[in-house]
């Protein structure tokens, strides 16, 4: 039958199309994987930091996955925030403005973080108090071991904060 | 002419020359603003040549990039500074020339039927050129380069669901790092220029089918153009273009030799530091207007982002927003006013983009952004009014 001949040709075309789609899919997948971070980047180890080395009122910056993490030991004259503290009077936040990713600077006289790019401000707890930032500074995953904080691992304290939605 | 015959037999080269050059008639009633297409080609050629020479010494590695540009090319390579300044000024001037080229199209209605494909391929070229400028800006690995890349890639974070993962994928790291630099290098040097060349070919081909628009916006037939109302693109029209190019090159090399600093942000002479953001970050002048639209909706981040994306692409839809049967602003008094308000607003937004986004400036940015969109949104209404006028036998 003539019809059958056409449908056989159609079948071949579809089969070829499907096979080509598999090929295109494979190529796209390979391209997608090529742009993934390299294993050495992904495997960047967790960072440990001794909180007791920070003096009251002082800020230390810890580099974690290439991002700055601010460790602030609050003094009593700063705003207090028991729910956002990783431990006692320590504020530990990712030093990346939640607006567009700039790094805010600490203004010691006003006791706030001020983002130079679009004027966002955060208090000593990392809460956004002015400007375009949509949310407080993020709290990175952490685990507390005595006075040492391990960044990149989810400890109990972090999980509790995460459940209350306080980390992001 | 033996070579010509030989080529003609194999490539039909005479036919090609006729279609593209000698029998492509340009109307006589066009002004110098129509020269900017040729100027775009000229600047593109300058960028390719200067880029190739920079490429010979540039090192796409986050440890070496800064010194390869600021030490090797600027100090060690003979005339390296010339190629760098030419490339940087060329990138900047490309946008000036493109903006004028596009504004001429908007003023004289060159986006209207039958030239929609010309407009759209042109707009794709503008977007590709923006991407090329953005990826190229990262390569010197200075502070401004770095933080421009950091903030612009962060924009993708706001895409629902996949955003944060997408950003890591684009950067190849949690932050802008070596992987980002090398892939931007590949895009800037090979991929985007290749696409630019392809779309330029389509753009030039597409404009040869309906031919060039003119000041009156009244179409001339090919016969009319051939007999008295037009001139062949080659050699007659190009003869004038060589004069325009000469004048332009004087201006261009004046900038390269005496005013190159406008294309070189001083902050970019500090090596990239991923732990310290510069006090003020702002894009190059040609993105300031769009950047100001992003900041203009200061009270809502999401609204600002939507407005920003819209501001970059809304002009691509002009053929469907402006459906008035009259083409040229010469015969459209209201459109003429709207056009100049739009141009003034664009300049206003560009200036505001450089100022701090606080207090009065924030509100001015907001109203400026509204005016920007108002231009596009009043066009359908204006089209309706003008259609009635034309139908009523004006």
UniProtKB/TrEMBL annotation, chain A:
<comment type="similarity">
    <text>Belongs to the Rieske iron-sulfur protein family.</text>
</comment>
<keyword id="KW-0411">Iron-sulfur</keyword>
<dbReference type="InterPro" id="IPR017941">
    <property type="entry name" value="Rieske_2Fe-2S"/>
</dbReference>
<protein>
    <submittedName>
        <fullName>Ubiquinol-Cytochrome c reductase, iron-sulfur subunit</fullName>
        <ecNumber>1.10.2.2</ecNumber>
    </submittedName>
</protein>
<dbReference type="GO" id="GO:0016020">
    <property type="term" value="C:membrane"/>
</dbReference>
<dbReference type="Pfam" id="PF10399">
    <property type="entry name" value="UCR_Fe-S_N"/>
</dbReference>
<keyword id="KW-0812">Transmembrane</keyword>
<keyword id="KW-1133">Transmembrane helix</keyword>
<dbReference type="GO" id="GO:0016491">
    <property type="term" value="F:oxidoreductase activity"/>
</dbReference>
<keyword id="KW-0560">Oxidoreductase</keyword>
<feature type="transmembrane region" description="Helical">
    <location>
        <begin position="12"/>
        <end position="32"/>
    </location>
</feature>
<keyword id="KW-0408">Iron</keyword>
<keyword id="KW-0001">2Fe-2S</keyword>
<dbReference type="InterPro" id="IPR006311">
    <property type="entry name" value="TAT_signal"/>
</dbReference>
<keyword id="KW-0479">Metal-binding</keyword>
<dbReference type="GO" id="GO:0046872">
    <property type="term" value="F:metal ion binding"/>
</dbReference>
<dbReference type="GO" id="GO:0051537">
    <property type="term" value="F:2 iron, 2 sulfur cluster binding"/>
</dbReference>
<dbReference type="InterPro" id="IPR036922">
    <property type="entry name" value="Rieske_2Fe-2S_sf"/>
</dbReference>
<dbReference type="GO" id="GO:0008121">
    <property type="term" value="F:quinol-cytochrome-c reductase activity"/>
</dbReference>
<dbReference type="Pfam" id="PF00355">
    <property type="entry name" value="Rieske"/>
</dbReference>
<dbReference type="InterPro" id="IPR014349">
    <property type="entry name" value="Rieske_Fe-S_prot"/>
</dbReference>
<dbReference type="InterPro" id="IPR019470">
    <property type="entry name" value="Ubiq_cytC_Rdtase_Fe-S_su_TAT"/>
</dbReference>
Automatic annotation (TrEMBL), chain B:
<feature type="transmembrane region" description="Helical">
    <location>
        <begin position="88"/>
        <end position="107"/>
    </location>
</feature>
<keyword id="KW-0408">Iron</keyword>
<keyword id="KW-0479">Metal-binding</keyword>
<keyword id="KW-1133">Transmembrane helix</keyword>
<keyword id="KW-0679">Respiratory chain</keyword>
<comment type="function">
    <text>Component of the ubiquinol-cytochrome c reductase complex (complex III or cytochrome b-c1 complex), which is a respiratory chain that generates an electrochemical potential coupled to ATP synthesis.</text>
</comment>
<feature type="transmembrane region" description="Helical">
    <location>
        <begin position="303"/>
        <end position="321"/>
    </location>
</feature>
<dbReference type="InterPro" id="IPR005797">
    <property type="entry name" value="Cyt_b/b6_N"/>
</dbReference>
<dbReference type="InterPro" id="IPR027387">
    <property type="entry name" value="Cytb/b6-like_sf"/>
</dbReference>
<keyword id="KW-0249">Electron transport</keyword>
<feature type="binding site" description="axial binding residue">
    <location>
        <position position="101"/>
    </location>
    <ligand>
        <name>heme b b566</name>
    </ligand>
</feature>
<dbReference type="GO" id="GO:0045275">
    <property type="term" value="C:respiratory chain complex III"/>
</dbReference>
<dbReference type="InterPro" id="IPR005798">
    <property type="entry name" value="Cyt_b/b6_C"/>
</dbReference>
<feature type="transmembrane region" description="Helical">
    <location>
        <begin position="32"/>
        <end position="58"/>
    </location>
</feature>
<dbReference type="GO" id="GO:0016491">
    <property type="term" value="F:oxidoreductase activity"/>
</dbReference>
<dbReference type="InterPro" id="IPR016174">
    <property type="entry name" value="Di-haem_cyt_TM"/>
</dbReference>
<feature type="domain" description="Cytochrome b/b6 N-terminal region profile">
    <location>
        <begin position="3"/>
        <end position="216"/>
    </location>
</feature>
<dbReference type="Pfam" id="PF00032">
    <property type="entry name" value="Cytochrom_B_C"/>
</dbReference>
<feature type="transmembrane region" description="Helical">
    <location>
        <begin position="361"/>
        <end position="382"/>
    </location>
</feature>
<feature type="binding site" description="axial binding residue">
    <location>
        <position position="87"/>
    </location>
    <ligand>
        <name>heme b b562</name>
    </ligand>
</feature>
<feature type="transmembrane region" description="Helical">
    <location>
        <begin position="119"/>
        <end position="139"/>
    </location>
</feature>
<keyword id="KW-0472">Membrane</keyword>
């Amino acid at each position: 039958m003539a019809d059958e001949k056409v449908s056989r040709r159609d079948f071949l075309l579809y089969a070829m199309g499907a096979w080509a789609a598999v090929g295109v899919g494979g190529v796209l997948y390979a391209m997608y994987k090529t742009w993934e971070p390299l294993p050495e980047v992904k495997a960047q180890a967790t960072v440990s930091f001794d909180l007791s080395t920070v003096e009251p009122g002082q800020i230390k910056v810890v580099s974690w996955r290439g991002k700055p993490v601010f460790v602030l030991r609050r003094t009593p004259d700063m705003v207090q925030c028991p729910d956002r503290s990783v431990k006692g009077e320590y504020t530990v936040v990712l030093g990346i403005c939640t607006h567009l990713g700039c790094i805010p600077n600490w203004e010691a006289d006003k006791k706030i973080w001020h983002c130079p790019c679009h004027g966002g401000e955060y208090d000593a707890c990392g809460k956004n108090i002015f400007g375009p930032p949509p949310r407080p500074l993020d709290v990175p995953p952490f685990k507390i071991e005595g006075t040492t904080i391990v960044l990149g691992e989810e400890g109990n304290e972090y999980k509790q904060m995460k459940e209350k939605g306080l980390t992001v | 002419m033996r070579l010509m015959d030989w080529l003609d037999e194999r490539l039909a080269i005479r036919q090609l020359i006729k279609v593209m050059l000698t029998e492509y008639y340009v109307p006589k009633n066009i002004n110098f603003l129509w020269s900017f297409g040729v100027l775009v080609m000229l600047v593109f050629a300058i960028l390719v040549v200067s880029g190739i020479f920079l490429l010979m010494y540039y090192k796409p590695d986050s440890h070496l990039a800064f010194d390869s540009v600021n030490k090797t090319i600027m100090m060690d390579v003979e005339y390296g500074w010339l190629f760098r300044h030419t490339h940087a000024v060329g990138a900047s001037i490309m946008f000036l020339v493109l903006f004028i080229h596009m504004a001429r199209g908007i003023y004289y209605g060159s986006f209207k039927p039958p030239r929609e494909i010309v407009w759209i391929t042109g707009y794709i070229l503008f977007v590709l050129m923006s991407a090329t400028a953005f990826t190229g800006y990262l390569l010197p690995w200075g502070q401004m380069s770095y933080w421009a890349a950091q903030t612009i890639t962060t924009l993708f974070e706001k895409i629902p669901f996949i955003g944060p993962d997408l950003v890591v994928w684009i950067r190849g790291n949690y932050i802008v790092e070596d992987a980002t630099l090398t892939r931007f290098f590949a895009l800037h040097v090979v991929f985007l220029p290749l696409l630019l060349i392809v779309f330029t070919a389509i753009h030039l081909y597409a404009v040869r089918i309906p031919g060039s628009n003119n000041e009156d916006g009244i179409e001339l037939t090919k016969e009319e153009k051939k007999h008295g109302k037009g001139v062949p693109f080659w050699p007659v029209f190009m003869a004038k273009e060589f004069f325009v190019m000469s004048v332009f090159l004087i201006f261009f090399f004046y900038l390269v030799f005496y005013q190159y600093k406008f294309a070189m942000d001083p902050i970019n002479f500090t090596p990239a530091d991923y732990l310290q953001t510069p006090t003020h970050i702002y894009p190059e002048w040609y993105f300031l207007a769009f950047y100001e639209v992003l900041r203009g909706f200061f009270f809502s981040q999401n609204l600002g982002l939507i407005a920003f994306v819209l501001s970059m692409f809304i002009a691509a839809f002009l053929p469907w927003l402006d459906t008035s049967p009259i083409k040229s602003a010469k015969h459209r008094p209201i459109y003429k006013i709207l056009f100049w308000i739009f141009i003034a607003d664009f300049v206003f937004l560009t200036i505001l983009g450089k100022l701090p986004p606080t207090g009065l400036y924030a509100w001015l940015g907001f109203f400026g952004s509204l005016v920007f969109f108002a231009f596009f949104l009043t066009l359908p209404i204006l089209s309706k009014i003008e259609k009635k006028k034309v139908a009523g036998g004006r």
